[in-house]
Amino acid sequence: MHIAHLLTRAALRWPERPAWLQDERVITFRQAEARVNRLAHALAQLGATAGDRIGMLLPNCSQGLETILAPMKGGMAVVPMNIRLHPDEHAYMLNDSGTRVLIYGEEFRPHLDTIRGRLTTVEHCICVGEPTRGDLEFSEVMQGQPETPPQIKPGQNILYTSAEITDRMPHRGGGSHYAVCTSSKSHNCCTGTGS
After folding, report:
1. How far is it, in rounded angstroms, from Cα 172 to Cα 169?
2. Is residue 192 part of a domain?
3. How many domains does the chain have?
4. CATH number of 12's domain
5. Over the stretch 35-56, which tens digit does the pLDDT of each residue have?
């Protein structure tokens, strides 16, 4: 099962229903589908291909949902990171997973600056907010991109557990789309069934 298909299906069934609410902003399923597709195409334009890893260091926000779904639509793997982890743990996760693109919130810029020099695989950083140091801005990378879904098989997530006391670094595991779909269904996410 392809988790991003749930958003596509909801956009076809209920295009004007709210998909995501953030403060006073309402994003309909149709708008969410278009934004996710544009981000998937933007990642591909940056050189990310099927199987590549896309790191995510964002708080709970609509851009975070888009960052989870877009790489999946492009056949890429998402590496979501807990925002409360230590910078060393984030550096480890990004390097260990081979992340090529990192999408981060501007509030984590000082955090990212402490590890930037140690990141061995990250080629592009995309900032939700005001970018710095040659980083790209989230909304700008999506401008002019197609709103249609990319024609690629879905990717897989790379999930990390909390650090173990014995070795102090997070442990990597894979997350199938089926597992994510099952979890999202239990929360009525992206299916249009929530109230």
Report:
1. 10
2. no
3. 1
4. 3.40.50.12780
5. 999 999 999 999 999 999 999 9
